[in-house]
Amino acid sequence: MKRARPGWLTAALVAAGALCVVFPLFWMAVTSLKTVPEIQRLPLHVFPDRWSNLDNYREV
Asked: Based on the structure, what is the number of domains in the chain?
């Protein structure tokens, strides 16, 4: 008879998989609101300085 994985291990694997799927989508959405200098700035900042920057969408 096969032994089942502990519940916490299954939950950890599912959480890690979900993070691998959701994080790139989050990063693309946040980066689309940044200006080019904000994207190229080091060290990286997750959130843009100005949240009302929709110029990228207007240009498209």
From this structure: 1
